[in-house]
Amino acid sequence: MWESKRAAAVPGSVFALMDAAKGRARAAGLSVIDLSIGSSDQAPPETVLDELRAATRDPDTYRYPLFSDTALLRTAATRYLDRRFGIKLNPDTEVLPLIGAQEGLAHLLMAVTDPGDILLLPDPGYPPYLGAAAVAGLNPVPLPLHAERGFLPDLDAIPATLQPRALLLNYPNNPTSAVADQAFFQRAADWARQRGALLIHDHPYAELTFGDYRAPSALEAGTAGVVELHSLSKTHHMGGFRVGFAAGDAAAIAALTRVKGAVDFHPYLGIQRAAARALDLPDEVGRAGAATFQARRDALVPALRELGWQVAMPQASMYAWAQVPGLTDSVTFAVRAAEQTGVAVSPGRAFGARGEGFVRFALVQPPEVLRQAAQRLATVTVT
Ligand SMILES: Cc1ncc(COP(=O)(O)O)c(C=O)c1O
């Protein structure tokens, strides 16, 4: 009775099925290796935690944070974007703290679109994208990401008659772990500008890159008509702190500020101080964190390949995207794998129709546990 059409339109999640399967594995006495959730298992840098500890003892942090109080984090964010990508932004008009990128996206869509507008979004893609589109009353149009194109959308294939209000992209990508170069972002920004759409780039894996590979920013293509969402969740292992920032087109940031003014009061000042400290850390700190995930990739991917799995070697992110062996559908495989071996992975179907045929491994366990997970998966039977 008390469900709005908006609430009813938020899609349910396949993850409930996985939870139940993990429960059955535990009940059967199996030890569960949970690789189904992309939450970092690392700790934030100690200096970041010190900043937060000190803030909790400072009574000035106990009040509601006003917009003017966000200056510290806004200026740290602009320093980071300049240092890392060479992008110079005005901290007063082109940057806004978020309570995580996920919150930011949901409110950004409400701020820059109207009900019924078309949102182009990746398929497969991060599942909350569809929920955010539903809450904003949008008409989501999936952009297929295919392995043959490196999981980049074919913008030329989008019919000229379609009039999207926004184009949502995410590289390094969840779930495929694909990456995009600067030339791609330039093409996407040009395309969006021509079509009168806002390019929204969700960038939580900006620093989770391996070897010499460094991820570009969509803002390198200019800020007009582009907004990028950054997060401290993965890059600084601060997922539970709920903090990130939006950066880019001043008009879109102003609209987002207005909408957020109606629903929240900015992150706790202590968390803003901790996030500002994190963003000012030298790049080597982020590289060291990324190396942990690289070592896990180097354990899991060869182990899966030895067992005959087809899986690309990711250059970034905290995932491996692997083809389901045989002709089994991804949900059946993931449920059976959890029930029979205790290894929980995410079925590709959970990320959209084009995710079918794949499963996603989150690299959230040490290398030896990942190797053990691969060995266990070799024994799964699906008939
Ligand atoms: C693509 C993508 N966007 C956003 C998020 C959530 O970021 P945050 O913790 O900043 O809300 C995730 C988390 O897994 C993600 O994979």
Commentary on this structure:
Its cofactor is pyridoxal 5'-phosphate. It comes from Deinococcus navajonensis. Pfam families: Aminotran_1_2. Keywords: Aminotransferase, Transferase. This is Aminotransferase class I/II-fold pyridoxal phosphate-dependent enzyme. This protein is of the alpha/beta class and 383 residues long. It has 2 domains: 5-43 and 284-377, Aspartate Aminotransferase, domain 1; 46-283, Type I PLP-dependent aspartate aminotransferase-like (Major domain) (Aspartate Aminotransferase, domain 2, 3-Layer(aba) Sandwich). It contains 13 helices and 12 strands. The protein has helices at 5-9, 15-27, 46-56, 71-85, 101-112, 128-135, 182-195, 232-235, 250-263, 269-280, 283-306, 330-341, 367-377; strands at residues 33-34, 95-98, 118-123, 139-144, 164-169, 198-202, 226-231, 244-248, 319-323, 343-344, 346-347, 358-362. The strands form 3 sheets. Strands 2-8-7-6-5-3-4 form a 7-stranded mixed sheet, with helices on both faces. Strands 9-12-11 form a 3-stranded antiparallel sheet, covered by helices on one side. The longest helix is centred in the last third of the chain and has 24 residues, at 283-306. The radius of gyration is 21 Å and the shape is globular. The protein starts with a helix and ends in a 6-residue tail after the last helix. The mean pLDDT is 96. Bound molecules: pyridoxal-5'-phosphate (PLP).
